[in-house]
């Protein structure tokens, strides 16, 4: 089943094409969008959730145009910057956003449990650790049980143990039926994904499962495969 489909997507910012004629499709499970900082990952994700102005092309999500009203409660989005209130508790934050979405208070309680924050539900967000704060933002994105969860570098700045725990959570969410599209610039996180989109300078240079991408490049890990792909793209560009 196709969850996200991009056709000829072009995004121009500051007179420069950040994405130019991008075509791709994303299915169920956990899909990792991996590439260095500044390569266009956030722009692509913003296009998927419908908050990015596009110059050309189409973005279809769950059979609807990206950002259209029918998708309001079908897509959850967590940005890089914190979208929660530091002076409220975990539960107060979730109940506030639940009201904004027109959801009952019970939705906040169930979401707290879903991200393993039950023991911190009454803690003030500003006093939580970085990993716990990321979970609060994730909980907000999960309100209403979205069919697609879009996460923009949710593990940036976290230590390896916290990153491991969050990725385990992403996989549990996907197993429960929510498609997860998550960006990262940390190549070792690729192995935790069902599918991968490797990105460089606004282009998707490879798509497939981690096993498929490594096999095509004869590489033992994704970082080595990515470097081989980059070298190939550079050679083709110079030819």
Automatic annotation (TrEMBL):
Residues 4-226 form the ABC transporter domain. The keyword Acyltransferase does not apply. GO terms for molecular function: ATP binding. Gene3D superfamilies: P-loop containing nucleotide triphosphate hydrolases. Keywords: ATP-binding, Nucleotide-binding. This is ABC transporter ATP-binding protein. It comes from Nocardioides ginsengisoli. The lineage of its organism: Bacteria, Bacillati, Actinomycetota, Actinomycetes, Propionibacteriales.
